[in-house]
């Protein structure tokens, strides 16, 4: 069954998608599924391990389950400092 | 842990770390330099997702306190557009003796660089610009590959 997920894109992901946030209907069980299903939107060829994810403003793992109504934040490889 | 969009002032920040028991103060400042991977850099733009950067930064400082017997520790990171020579990140630690202050300061900056949701876009001398894909950070994220230091 599809879930309504609000996805937020950051930095290069946002520039590729052309929007900072959108709500999509996806057949996704985990955060990793969201990343894979939205490859055309964020445009990243990076392996999952290089990127990070948060769900509802809490850092999460790619194996973390997603629920209908969740906000998933997709982070490209970070480069602070 | 704080994210700010005005100049970092280390001399003011260090005042928040003072303690009568402190015999050592170690600070790290990350500055904007004019070159990255062979390309001349004019300026940098930092994008920060502040709600999580603050939360994750506080977690890193708490970890440093557990790991090392320090007195105080703090970190400030900039967001927005920065010019050459500006301070992008500051870490300060005080402790009774110097060893733990050096170690904790190193720990905090290393973790900040790979864990905080912060991205930087470089503007190059040749007119191009691009998001920096931190190689060292990518290596750090792979548990099978170890990074020295």
Short account of what is shown:
The complex is a heterodimer of chains A (81) and B (149). Chain A has helices at residues 11-17, 31-37, 39-42, and strands spanning 3-9, 21-26, 52-55, 58-60, 71-75. By secondary structure, chain A is an alpha+beta fold.
What report would you give on this structure?
Chain A is an alpha+beta fold. Chain A has helices at 11-17, 31-37, 39-42; strands at 3-9, 21-26, 52-55, 58-60, 71-75. Chain A has three helices and five strands, in the order βαβααβββ. Chain A is globular and about 40 Å long. With 149 residues, chain B is α+β, with helices and mostly antiparallel strands. Chain B has a single domain, classed as Aldehyde Oxidoreductase, domain 3. Helix content of chain B is 32%, strand content 36%. The longest helix of chain B is centred in the middle third of the chain and has 18 residues, at 50-67. The model of chain B is unreliable at 135-149 (pLDDT under 50). Chain A binds chain B through residues 10-12, 15, 46, 49-50, 52, 54, 57, 59, 73, 75-81, and chain B through 30, 46-47, 49, 51-52, 55-56, 77, 88-89, 109, 112-121, 131-134, 137-138, 141-142.
């Amino acid at each position: 069954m599809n879930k309504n997920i609000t996805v937020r894109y950051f930095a290069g992901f946002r520039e590729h998608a052309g929007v900072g946030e959108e709500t999509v209907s996806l057949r996704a069980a985990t955060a990793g599924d969201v990343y894979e299903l939205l490859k055309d939107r964020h445009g990243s060829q990076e392996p999952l391990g290089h990127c990070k994810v948060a769900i509802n403003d809490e850092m999460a793992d790619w194996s973390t389950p997603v629920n209908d109504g969740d906000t998933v934040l997709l982070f490209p490889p970070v480069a602070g400092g | 842990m704080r994210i700010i969009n005005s100049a970092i002032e280390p001399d003011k920040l260090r005042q928040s770390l003072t303690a009568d028991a402190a015999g050592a103060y170690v600070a790290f400042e990350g500055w904007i330099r004019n070159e990255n991977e062979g390309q001349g850099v004019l300026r940098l733009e930092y994008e920060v997702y502040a709600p999580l950067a603050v939360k994750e930064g506080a977690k890193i400082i708490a970890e440093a306190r557990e790991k090392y017997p320090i007195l105080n520790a703090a970190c400030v990171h900039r967001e927005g557009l920065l010019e050459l020579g500006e301070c992008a990140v500051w870490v300060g630690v005080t402790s009774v003796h110097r060893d733990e202050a050096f170690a904790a300061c190193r720990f905090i900056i290393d973790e900040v660089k790979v864990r905080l949701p912060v991205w930087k876009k470089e503007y190059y001398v040749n007119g191009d610009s691009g998001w920096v894909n931190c190689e060292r950070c990518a290596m750090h994220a792979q548990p099978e590959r170890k990074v020295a230091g």
